[in-house]
Amino acid sequence: MMLEIEKINVYYGAIHALTDISYNVKEGEIVALIGANGAGKSTSLKTLSGILHPMNGSIRFLEEEISTKAAEDIVSKGIIHVPEGRKIFAPLTVMENLEMGAYLQNDKDQIACDIRGVFERFPRLKERQNQLGGTLSGGEQQMLAIARGLMARPKLMLLDEPSMGLAPVLVEQIFEIIQEINKQGTSILLVEQNAKMALSIANRAYVLETGSIVLEGDAKEVMENSSVIQAYLGG
Amino acid sequence: MERKNQNPIVNWIVKSKILGILFFVIIGAFAVYKLGTALFDNPSLFLQQVVNGLQLGFVYALIALGYTMIYGIIQLINFAHGDIFMVGAFASFYSISRYNVHLWFQNLFPSVPVMLAQIIGTVTVILVSMVVCALLAYTIERIAYKPLRTAPRISALITAIGISFFLEYFGALNFVFSPNYITYQRPFAVKSWFVGPSGFGSIESGIAPPAHSIIFSNIFLIIVFASLLLLLVLQYIVKKTKIGKAMRAVAYDKPTARLMGINSDAIISVTFALGAALAGAAGVLYAIAFPQVFFSMGITPGMKAFVAAVVGGIGSIPGAFIGALIMGQAETLSAAYISTPMRDAIAFSLLIVVLLIRPKGIMGETSSEKV
Ligand SMILES: Nc1ncnc2c1ncn2[C@@H]1O[C@H](COP(=O)(O)OP(=O)(O)OP(=O)(O)O)[C@@H](O)[C@H]1O
Ligand SMILES: [Mg+2]
What we know:
The structure holds two protein chains of two kinds. Chain A has a single domain (3-232), classed as 3-Layer(aba) Sandwich (Rossmann fold), CATH 3.40.50. Chain A is 39% helix and 27% strand. In chain A, helix 3 runs parallel beside helix 6 (138-150). Chain A is built from ten helices and ten strands. Chain B has one domain. In chain B, strand 2 and strand 3 (199-203) form a beta hairpin. Magnesium ion binds next to helix 1 of chain A.
């Protein structure tokens, strides 16, 4: 098992945001985490990446307990979190944003090679490498956010609503890219409002409702579940 | 609740910033008139004032950069920054008077030209002060500010004021720096030159320079040169190095910077150390220019540099530099042409005028970068 979360509870002060949540991601999988607004999807990812810490329970990544580790140490273990809303460093150029993604990489040649790699995947970013991150369009920013995440050479990528605010064509493009990244060996935990899209590319899925997991299974099964169809797939 | 002002006239006055503009126009006209006649009456005296103002402005710039960088990264006005400057001056005082650091090269290689040995010695003294101040600020940041990272901003601000008082009054103790005004021994001999209608030449002691010429000294040269060099080095660090890019990333968005694996606390500490190193250099240069050191010497230059940083647009590095040069000119020109006791009042009213028109300072809005 690559990532194993067991019975974690997360609080924001008095607000109990996640209650006894358990889920896992296996090597090479795409796992979707779906749920309504405020269900606790982003909170789950923030807990994995060490921005938040669970009150109790365990988070094990590659057989190592990481629930008390600081965010910067978790990156070095091989988990990268591409946050909701892209969070591009607006005053830094596209190139500098990518370099920040590679902050913990020390091999200069390898970084240069990785930058060439992401430019091949995202030719748009290559054209705009000297432009300030804040001046990119929403779609370009999303690509930069993913590209910046790839620069950390992650084993597991946490993606929080990569399709948010994008036109359908772009959404499809982004999802194709996610599948490609996965094929090249990066496991993916995907949080999405766009449940249909997410389930169509995922191996397995978890449904989150007000801080608890109410359903889990193969993506196909989840997609055919009547309550999911009603709640998230507009059926 | 915000109360909307319904009176259209009041509204218009506020919105159009008419008061600020009027104030600016009146003061501006007065200043142009005053300076214009001064320049016309005695150009060499006027230019002399500009040179003096430049020297002061560059020292302020070094201090202002620290204010602006620290504000840029954690939105803290580090009131103890002026006292770090004071410690820098004292560090050089001790390294010169007690340890003869400025003579090390001369002693080691007596055959080297004196001038070169003096330059190397002075640079060493400056570097020592920079290191001392960087270490001091690093320690202060770790002990006093880091625990307050998630506390309300006002807590850190009050802590900064506390640290400022601590450094001053701890310094005033007899076994530390003492409460006395102490004469400062410069690390090199002062040499002056004149330049003007009668040409260029060095000024020998006891002989008056020709009339209508501008006088400048090696103090002026070393201040301008050292400040420009440090500014360039800082620009290079912030723009080109990994740590500088991380500083900008942390200044913009700490949680996301952490998601990239950037240790934001370490970056903040480095920023403090860097700002303090510049203040340390400023302390040495200031003591060289005005050769006297005392425990409270950081207050006024610290305040002026803070104003310079705000005038320039706090958070902006070029802004701090421009603001400091303006402050230096405002201070010397008003001392020369209006009145010496008024110079501080005039320098500070500049702050009010600029803020009335551009609340974010000269470079505040246009530059998107915070560090
Ligand atoms: N910083 C915070 N302080 C207090 N409560 C918070 C905070 N962040 C999130 N919450 C609460 O925690 C719950 C889960 O929020 P979370 O952001 O994880 O939802 P989400 O599933 O990502 O929703 P969305 O789809 O809208 O992004 C919500 O009720 C939210 O109000
Ligand atoms: Mg969310």
